[in-house]
Amino acid sequence: xxxxxxxxxxxxxxxxxxxxxxxxxxxxxxxxxxxxxxxxxxxxxxxxxxxxxxxxxxxxxxxxxxxxxxxxxxxxxxxxxxxxxxxxxxxxxxxxxxxxxxxxxxxxxxxxxxxxxxxxxxxxxxxxxxxxxxxxxxxxxxxxxxxxxxxxxxxxxxxxxxxxxxxxxxxxxxxxxxxxxxxxxxxxxxxxxxxxxxxxxxxxxxxxxxxxxxxxxxxxxxxxxxxxxxxxxxxxxxxxxxxxxxxxxxxxxxxxxxxxxxxxxxxxxxxxxxxxxxxxxxxxxxxxxxxxxxxxxxxxxxxxxxxxxxxxxxxxxxxxxxxxxxxxxxxxxxxxxxxxxxxxxxxxxxxxx
Amino acid sequence: xxxxxxxxxxxxxxxxxxxxxxxxxxxxxxxxxxxxxxxxxxxxxxxxxxxxxxxxxxxxxxxxxxxxxxxxxxxxxxxxxxxxxxxxxxxxxxxxxxxxxxxxxxxxxxxxxxxxxxxxxxxxxxxxxxxxxxxxxxxxxxxxxxxxxxxxxxxxxxxxxxxxxxxxxxxxxxxxxxxxxxxxxxxxxxxxxxxxxxxxxxxxxxxxxxxxxxxxxxxxxxxxxxxxxxxxxxxxxxxxxxxxxxxxxxxxxxxxxxxxxxxxxxxxxxxxxxxxxxxxxxxxxxxxxxxxxxxxxxxxxxxxxxxxxxxxxxxxxxxxxxxxxxxxxxxxxxxxxxxxxxxxxxxxxxxxxxxxxxxxxxxxxxxxxxxxxxxxxxxxxxxxxxxxxxxxxxxxxxxxxxxxxxxxxxxxxxxxxxxxxxxxxxxxxxx
Lengths: 353, 431
What we know:
By secondary structure, chain A is mainly α. Helix content of chain A is 63%, strand content 0%. Chain A has helices at 17-39, 41-65, 74-80, 88-102, 110-125, 138-149, 174-180, 183-188, 200-212, 218-239, 244-253, 257-264, 275-295, 301-316, 328-348. The longest helix of chain A is centred in the N-terminal third of the chain and has 25 residues, at 41-65. In chain B, the strands form 4 sheets. Chain B has a 6-stranded mixed β-sheet, with helices on both faces. Chain B has a 4-stranded antiparallel β-sheet with strand order 2-8-7-4, with no helix packed on it. Chain B has a 4-stranded parallel β-sheet with strand order 11-10-9-12, with helices on both faces. Chain B is 29% helix and 22% strand.
């Protein structure tokens, strides 16, 4: 009998990266199904294109990154490049691909999708070292790239000329806006917008699944939502004190916020690794979304906020002060940060005490 | 999964159902001359000499203490042979042929209750020193050094948590030796001047709780409590046990005695009873063989028996074609050994035989399960990254020396990265 030497521990938990990735794919299903129901063939073709491109680019880059063995026929050499290729090299880009296809409008030309997908996986993920090494969210980065480089192509279906492109970029006053896009429609996705971002219900079902399966960290979600909603309350106080609740709910439900909070910022690869760090990361993203929404004009506010948050991850993880323990200082700092953004928002929008 | 993991399937329910097979009559018994704590040692007997149970047959020498070796059978000394000990090292072992009469040595006379009552603290220290008692939980730290602390002791804690999966020795000791356990605790309280005694057991061990409570009714004069603590891992780590059972928070790296606490494994307490009352060293222990490569069996075994005999008694290995991993100690912190001719020493409680499974490491996805699960609040993933960059300074800043090598970080990793090994490498890097 052969006896093998190992080092402790000798047992492992029944869990895997594969399971986590597949959980995210399952959680994305309600959103995907809704987008297919709403946009039909337009949605299917865009999801498929981004899946094929992202998985293909990852596989191609993976082969280039691994040295072949020196012996054997040409085919064997080629095969040896892929000996470490696992299911994670398919599921991880698949998650990115579906997320990416969900944050673009259904009318976006196919070649714009291809460009975005190639940039997202090729440059943002594989150039940095592939699975686990990327510092930016591939889907968000791909979206930003086409959003800036091909800005003219972003035309949303079902446009209401008077209301502008999407509920968020409308020039109408708030009371007219809420009349045109009631909260119920925002919740059930009966509005123009990016394919996956419009139906809050489908996103919330996915969020519930992610949290039950513990495939995503609730801390980032809560922090980002809180850091978004609290300043929005102050914005409402400054702008529409009589429609406060509708105003806040309107902003939470519209745009890419919910989708980003549930499926994009929870990507563990581009998150900090400590509990306080994850709260701070969420707060940073939520605050930046608020500021872009209220003082900026980009429809990709959420994606910008995510990339900005990703830049700060090494700072949240800096070994000299990053710790997994909560301290009064860190909690106080987070509270002050949220309040500060709230105050800026309140006075920036012309509110007076 | 991105969450704190504390509960591991412990596999004890199957071991608990088994009946104990006595195997105390091995033909030959072996006594390692050295041990992990005592790198030197010498014997004071010669081949052909007749030794009796409890007779001193040699001394092991450690850095700051000496430890006598005792015969656990009576019979003739046969010479030396090389076998491996608890730590997996090959050591010289003295062989004694068992005559199966178990003649007690002249010194092994029972003390009467009045004799015990008149014992002073120094006497207790001397008794435990002469009996060669060590921490039976696995540390093998000499008991007399613990007892001879200068700090005032308020409470003696009997640690019966045994939080590692597949370990069952303390469980049986608490169940079948409850009287000896409680008396041993009382002696330890007398020896240290403590007024309180607490036995910490897992919440789910209802049968032990009942057995101990029943026994405790016979000792109404002493302030002894049973503390039911959590079922999780590493609850048996003394700092966590003390916190859960007594509510005293002790900073890592400080001595428990500074806070008025003495912590003994429950089997150590039983051995204190035997040493004080019967003037005997540790003679027998409960030993289990378990794992998916062998039939689960629990034995009562004499110290000095070879583990390979127990493996034969348990029916040998299953599926000999599959490579096996042999583990002494628990599956989270135990030692992997390459041979099965392991000599039972005081701290040997089990052998785990597992079929070797190849786990392939995948890239880290920063899920932070290791950070969330770490009982000492360090960041294993960051330490691993710093170690890979050979960044000594950062490894030091991340406090890798706090690591108790409990194994949880490797256990929870969804990418199956062996983080615990990186912690050990990190410690070596900054040494």
